[in-house]
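User: Hi! I have a protein structure encoded as tokens and I'd like to know what sequence might fold into it. I'm fairly new to this, so please keep things simple.
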């Protein structure tokens, strides 16, 4: 924990570094409790200042020397995490030696031990816990790293770059020295040491160089690396083909560790991964898990250009590398899987989780202008909304110009630390467009609302769309300016046939857009008029925001019939699906408001009933199971909740379940037949077609199990789920069945399967995470008692972030009924965990507290209870800057 009180840092105060650190030569004598780190740093003053201030946190200083001369005590000061050297020469070699304690490092920042493995996490500001340095991304240095360790405990010694020398010391310790030829900021430094095995492959780059690919894991995980390797090679090829980017070192290493705060880290040439994002095998990993490995492997690989070769000037620019890299990994995943469904999944997440963040006390711009703790800004806004911004740029420029602009960016700024403006300037230069208004996307927090009305005029055979845009106030930001919002759209006639778009411009000129066009909103209010609609007899149906062309909430007064037409006929897969979502929202929300407990489809939801009938009738012939599964899925609790200023927790859950039940009952034979039709004899493979089939199958199973409490269906659906649990050869099907059994109203259905699962997988940490999550999400209030008990389970540990996310995170974020139980017991329990975690892993504690910060969205009783817990946390002594910043923001509004 930082000894100084938390203070905000402002973008406007940015100052360029006054010293260059051209090279650093590191030596680590690894020891669990007393690792010695020696550094020789080549320092060069860039201006007149001769007072050098280096970052250093929790370091025991052993020695300091300038050009070989040890410093006297009055020549330096080490306090408040800063080492100040007075009167340094204009260029010199600084030698430092410090001692650190990896075993005592529970924050998982800097050098720490995960099981018996030494590893590092330096982004954002972890390097200062390893050695004195200018720990900021705009100081780039050449690194060499020598690792010395006991060969018994740490036979494998890895660091960035290429191995250049190795040997054995007289005392029996061995050493390896690594050299990274590319200057880099210290947040990309990494080392790993321990008892590891590796799987190897090679990749020949487009220019014909051969690269060694190595994935390093503990021996028992060797059989779980094939998918990561396959994904890595696909990502390398893809970045060459799509962006013309080639890998630059002779070796690319990935290491999987069990204790990791985030998903993975793009350290130069030596990625370190949360094992959950690297390891996969059919027995223990679901389809979703396989897809996550594929996308995270690609994400970290793509950072080699978008992040490492061209890096960030300061941490306010985080989205420069993260938003861009997420955009790149999403495009990769779209190419590897079904693009339409890939987009649906991205938007589902954005609209439920990022929109909620944008509407919360922790709302912030994609490029924040101040922060207390940068670790709190690795958010959905910076990553996912940041990716949407890059997507809009790519669409505004078109594929060719966007590629040219990216080429320009990579060439012009190679080896530099740059800003969001530098990136957008490349887009401007190539496209010859003024993107100054577009820049507001980076500065303004909050989700824009776009309201649209349509005016059909049969006399003039024209159709006018009137747009209004507004972005709500967010903490510290009012009076938002209009954004440049690209609306990709088309028009359909009442039968769903696409109409050619003839746009009448202000000049009176007519612009023919073909069957699809992009309207660029730039003003608070704006209208567009389409003409030449002589063939029509009634108003056309606008298909707006195709592909989710901008991260906004768009409303249009669609009739249910128009939505049904879009669902069935629109050419855009995303909008076909979204029309279904709109129809479901329009149907469910009045029922939620009325707090109904039972639904008569014919009476309460006639259009939705017809839509499901149509989908299920088509289902027999569909080639597109992925799309069908998406279309048949009801909006999630989180998405429904997002529609309400004050979230009616019980009513949403009640109506969702009632609708699921009604659809299950009405279409029971169809669900059963469709379920059976998806059962496959093929051996499991995590490829798109099979994944689609399983997702449809398990969606059908979900509907079947909605009838678990109805006497006439009970036995049959129980047997179907139990059979799937017993006979499936893969975790996707096994977990789907187990979850439904464990979540059935009769708790005894899940008892044996859960016990079987634990018996079989108790040695496998990642698999047991799933076991914890399944139980934490059982949708009944008494689940709180279960999770309290599970905290004591021998396989649980608060020290392991994956376990915390699996049990505590899942409970607070995916179990609304239990977490929000009106007694407040769920809130108090979460606060207890946050307080405990604050003491040893502030980053994780600060993430875990987020659900409590959303108190404004609940009714009074809950507000009071949630705030009381935030206040209790705030009153703790020794609150970390991480938790302090979040809790304070939440209580300030
Ligand atoms: N840069 C990492 C990524 O690819 C994010 C990350 C990994 C991170 N570990 C971290 C950020 C620890 C902060 C702290 O997205
Ligand atoms: Zn990243």
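Assistant: Happy to help. Inverse folding works backwards from shape to sequence: for each of the 893 positions I chose a residue that suits the local structure. Here it is:
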């Amino acid at each position: 924990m930082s000894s100084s009180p938390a203070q905000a840092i402002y973008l406007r105060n940015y100052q360029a570094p006054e010293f260059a650190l051209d090279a650093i030569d590191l030596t680590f004598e690894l020891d669990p409790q007393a690792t010695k780190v020696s550094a020789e740093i080549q320092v060069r003053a860039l201006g007149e200042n001769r007072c050098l201030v280096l970052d250093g946190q929790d370091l025991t200083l052993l020695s300091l020397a300038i050009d070989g001369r040890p410093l006297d005590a009055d020549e330096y000061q080490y306090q408040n995490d800063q080492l100040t050297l007075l009167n340094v020469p204009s260029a010199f070699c600084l030698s430092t030696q410090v001692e650190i304690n990896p075993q005592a490092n529970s924050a998982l920042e800097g050098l720490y031990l995960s099981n018996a493995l030494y590893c590092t996490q330096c982004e954002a500001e972890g390097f200062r816990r390893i050695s004195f340095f200018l720990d900021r991304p705009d100081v780039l240095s050449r690194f060499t790293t020598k690792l010395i360790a006991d060969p018994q405990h740490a036979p494998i010694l890895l660091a960035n770059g290429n191995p250049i020398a190795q040997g054995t010391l007289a005392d029996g310790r061995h050493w390896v020295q690594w050299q990274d030829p590319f200057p880099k900021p210290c947040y990309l430094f990494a080392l790993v040491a321990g008892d590891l095995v590796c799987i190897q492959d090679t990749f020949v780059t487009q220019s014909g160089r051969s690269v060694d690919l190595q994935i390093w894991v503990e021996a028992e995980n060797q059989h779980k690396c094939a998918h990561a390797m396959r994904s890595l090679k696909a990502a390398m090829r893809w970045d060459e083909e799509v962006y013309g980017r080639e890998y630059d070192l002779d070796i690319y290493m990935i290491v999987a560790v069990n204790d990791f705060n985030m998903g993975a880290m793009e350290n130069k040439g030596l990625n370190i991964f949360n094992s959950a994002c690297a390891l996969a095998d059919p027995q223990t990993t679901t389809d979703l898990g396989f897809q996550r490995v594929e996308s995270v492997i690609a994400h970290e690989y793509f950072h080699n250009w978008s992040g490492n070769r061209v890096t960030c000037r300061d941490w306010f620019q985080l989205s420069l590398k993260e938003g861009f890299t997420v955009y790149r990994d999403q495009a990769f995943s779209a190419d590897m899987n079904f693009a339409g469904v890939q987009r649906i999944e991205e938007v589902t997440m954005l609209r439920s989780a990022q929109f909620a963040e944008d509407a919360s006390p922790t709302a912030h711009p994609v490029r924040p202008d101040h922060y207390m703790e940068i670790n709190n800004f690795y958010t959905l806004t910076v990553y996912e909304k940041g990716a949407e911004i890059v997507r809009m740029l790519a669409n505004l420029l078109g594929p060719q110009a966007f590629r040219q602009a990216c080429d320009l960016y990579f060439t012009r700024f190679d080896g530099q630390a740059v800003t969001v403006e530098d990136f957008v300037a490349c887009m401007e230069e190539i496209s010859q467009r003024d993107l100054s208004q577009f820049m507001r996307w980076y500065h303004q927090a909050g989700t824009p609302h776009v309201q649209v009305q349509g005016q059909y005029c049969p006399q003039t055979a024209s159709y006018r769309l009137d747009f209004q845009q507004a972005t709500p106030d967010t903490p510290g930001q009012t009076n938002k300016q209009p954004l440049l919002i690209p609306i990709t759209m088309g028009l359909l006639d009442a039968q769903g046939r696409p109409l050619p778009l003839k746009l009448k411009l202000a000049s009176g000129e007519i612009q023919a857009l073909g069957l699809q066009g992009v309207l660029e909103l730039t003003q608070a209010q704006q209208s567009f008029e389409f003409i030449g609609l002589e063939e029509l007899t009634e108003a056309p149906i606008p298909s707006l925001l195709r592909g989710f062309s901008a991260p906004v909430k768009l409303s249009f007064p669609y009739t249910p019939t128009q939505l049904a037409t879009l669902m069935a006929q629109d050419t855009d897969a995303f909008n076909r699906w979204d029309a279904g979502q709109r129809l479901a929202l329009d149907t469910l929300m009045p029922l939620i408001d009325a707090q109904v407990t039972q639904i008569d489809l014919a009476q309460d939801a006639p259009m939705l009933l017809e839509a499901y009938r149509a989908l299920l009738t088509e289902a027999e012939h569909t080639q597109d199971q992925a799309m069908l599964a998406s279309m048949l899925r009801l909006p999630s609790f989180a998405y429904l909740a997002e529609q309400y200023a004050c979230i009616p927790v019980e009513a949403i859950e009640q109506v969702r379940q009632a609708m699921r039940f009604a659809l299950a009952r009405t279409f029971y034979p169809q669900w059963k037949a469709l379920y059976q039709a998806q059962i496959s004899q093929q051996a499991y493979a995590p490829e798109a077609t099979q994944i689609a089939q399983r997702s449809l199958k398990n969606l059908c199973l979900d509907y079947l199990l909605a009838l678990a409490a109805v006497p006439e269906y009970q036995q049959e659906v129980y047997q179907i789920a139990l059979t799937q649990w017993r006979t499936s050869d893969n975790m996707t099907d096994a977990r789907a069945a187990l979850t439904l059994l464990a979540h059935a109203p009769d708790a005894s259905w899940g008892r044996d399967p859960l016990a079987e699962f634990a018996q079989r997988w108790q040695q496998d940490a990642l698999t047991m995470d799933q076991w914890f999550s399944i139980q934490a999400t059982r949708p009944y209030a008494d689940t709180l008692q279960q999770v309290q008990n599970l905290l004591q389970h021998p396989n649980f540990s608060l020290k392991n972030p994956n376990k915390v996310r699996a049990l505590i995170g899942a409970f607070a974020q995916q179990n609304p009924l239990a977490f929000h139980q009106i007694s407040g017991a769920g809130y108090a329990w979460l606060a207890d965990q946050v307080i405990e975690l604050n003491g040893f892993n502030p980053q994780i504690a600060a993430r875990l507290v987020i659900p409590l910060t959303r108190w404004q969205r609940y009714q009074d009783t809950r507000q009071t209870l949630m705030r009381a817990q935030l206040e209790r946390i705030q009153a703790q002594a020794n609150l970390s800057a991480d938790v302090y910043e979040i809790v304070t923001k939440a209580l300030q509004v």
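A useful reference point when you look it over: Residues 449-550 form a domain with the Immunoglobulin-like fold (CATH 2.60.40.1840). Feel free to ask if any position seems puzzling.
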